[in-house]
Amino acid sequence: MKAGGLTALVLAGSRGPDDPMAQAFGVPHKALIAVAGTPMLLRVIAALGATPEIARIVVVIEAPALVQALPGLAEAANGKPVDLFPAAGSPSRSVVAALARYPVPLLVTTADHALLQPGWVRHFLASVPAGADAALALARSEVVLAEMPDTRRTWLRFAEGSYSGCNLFFFATPKAQALAELWQQVEALRKQPVAMLRLLGLGYALRYRFGWLKLSAALARLGQLAGGCRAAVVEMPFARAAVDVDKPADKELVERLLAEDRPAH
What we know:
Elements: E1 6-11, H1 20-24, E2 34-35, E3 38-39, H2 40-49, E4 54-60, H3 64-68, H4 73-77, E5 82-85, H5 91-101, E6 106-110, H6 118-127, E7 134-140, H7 141-147, E8 156-158, E9 161-171, H8 176-188, H9 193-200, H10 202-209, H11 215-225, E10 231-235, H12 248-261
Parallel strand pairs: 1-4, 1-6, 4-5, 7-10
Antiparallel strand pairs: 2-3, 6-9, 7-9, 8-9
Helix pairs in contact: 5-8
């Protein structure tokens, strides 16, 4: 992908004033939790600002004033424009709304991806298969656990192995809109397991439950449900790409990793 032509969407929606992480660290919004002294959101913006392929950064948040008041915002964005877009109540709804406003291709990440590095973003973008309408980044459990053997991740278990999500998504063509809308459907049914099984297909759900479902078959099924959208996976060789800050233990892990990276004095 050519340098400077892509919009990056940062999902920073909140669970509201009762967000347990925001309360735990005494900030008005989870995205503002300081990791090694810097708000997570600012760390993500800085990584995107340093990525040549990114031309514009869009922060999806229900409280734009919090972003506007961030010290060092312009410096982190590296001169790139930072738009503020209203959060729509859930990640999938926010992405669907953003796709109606911003043209593809569109990169999506999250405000709690506090370790995000420009090199990861560039690797992901360069590795999206030709012809894919959408792609997501996954890291194999072997890669993640080799560097962080004690980490607790949510694993997606397929016949080929177990994977962790890396909070990087790419919507390459207009067909990806249907995949975002499918995501919205699944998200809306998360408390209705029978309806979700009916939507995804009982056979696929059972094969996944017992570890028999191949990742390629799962992608093909998602594409079928999304009207022929071609979905792909990019396997990330970076263990830390699988780490986001969802709980206090994650923050401790991220700060420990950052401390290990600091040169000794």
